[in-house]
């Protein structure tokens, strides 16, 4: 699995600077993969766009200034959400941290700071105490974070996220899934702008099918 992840990352790196033409129609098997078994969405009635990511992934970090402005302008019938990919080791630690912050309702306040700490400041943030110490500098209550991090509820969320990643059949990050049916990434979509183009066309496809 680790080799598959590294391979996908290298592919993403080789095409990261490329941009897909917005007017060019997309095809299953080329820009995206249609999943054999659709995964139920979290908010029925809305078109769901999922980004699977890892705080330790440099391509996920570079994708942030591209995807964030796009996600903020999505129409009301689209639900954008992030799910941490967890393939063991630091992936699991970072994923559990994200889910904890999300459960506490502060993820949106510190998401960028966590990315910056790991990618720029080279903090590992794999130990809960280390996480709590850093997050305290960002206004997050240390004791509440640790209690939430170690709760049964978060352990359940971790298992759910891992199961979703398996159902989406991802092998690397960042990966995107639209409405639990279509998966694509920087490699298949030919760069970050290509990812948004594919997402826009698949959102339109799902909207038209309603």
Automatic annotation (TrEMBL):
Principal localisation: periplasm
Keyword check for Disulfide bond: yes
Family affiliation: Belongs to the thioredoxin family. DsbA subfamily.
Disulfide bonds: 57-60
Any Gene Ontology CC annotation: periplasmic space
PROSITE patterns cross-referenced by the UniProt entry: THIOREDOXIN_1 (PS00194), THIOREDOXIN_2 (PS51352)
Domain Thioredoxin: 7-204
Organism: Pseudomonas auratipiscis
Subcellular location: Periplasm
A GO molecular function held by the record: disulfide oxidoreductase activity
A Pfam family hit: DSBA
Record's protein name: Thiol:disulfide interchange protein
Lineage, top ranks: Bacteria, Pseudomonadati, Pseudomonadota, Gammaproteobacteria, Pseudomonadales
DNA-binding in keyword set: no
Signal peptide bounds: 1-22
């Amino acid at each position: 699995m680790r080799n598959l992840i590294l391979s996908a990352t290298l592919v993403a790196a080789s095409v990261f600077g490329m941009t897909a033409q917005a007017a060019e129609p997309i095809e299953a098997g080329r820009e995206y993969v249609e999943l054999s078994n659709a995964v139920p969405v979290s908010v029925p009635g809305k078109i769901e766009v999922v980004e699977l990511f890892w705080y330790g992934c440099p391509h996920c970090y570079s994708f942030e200034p591209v995807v964030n402005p796009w996600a903020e302008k999505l129409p009301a019938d689209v639900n954008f959400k992030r799910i941490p990919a967890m393939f063991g080791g630091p992936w699991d630690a970072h994923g559990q941290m994200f889910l904890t912050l999300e459960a506490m309702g502060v993820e949106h306040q510190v998401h960028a700071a966590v990315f910056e700490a790991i990618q720029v400041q080279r903090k590992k943030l794999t130990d809960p105490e280390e996480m709590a110490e850093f997050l305290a500098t960002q206004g997050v209550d240390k004791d509440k974070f640790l209690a939430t991090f170690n709760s049964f509820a978060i352990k359940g969320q971790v298992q759910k996220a891992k199961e979703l990643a398996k159902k989406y059949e991802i092998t690397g990050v960042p990966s995107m899934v639209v409405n639990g049916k279509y998966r694509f990434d920087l490699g298949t979509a030919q760069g970050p702008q290509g990812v948004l183009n594919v997402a826009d066309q698949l959102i339109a496809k799902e909207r038209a099918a309603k």
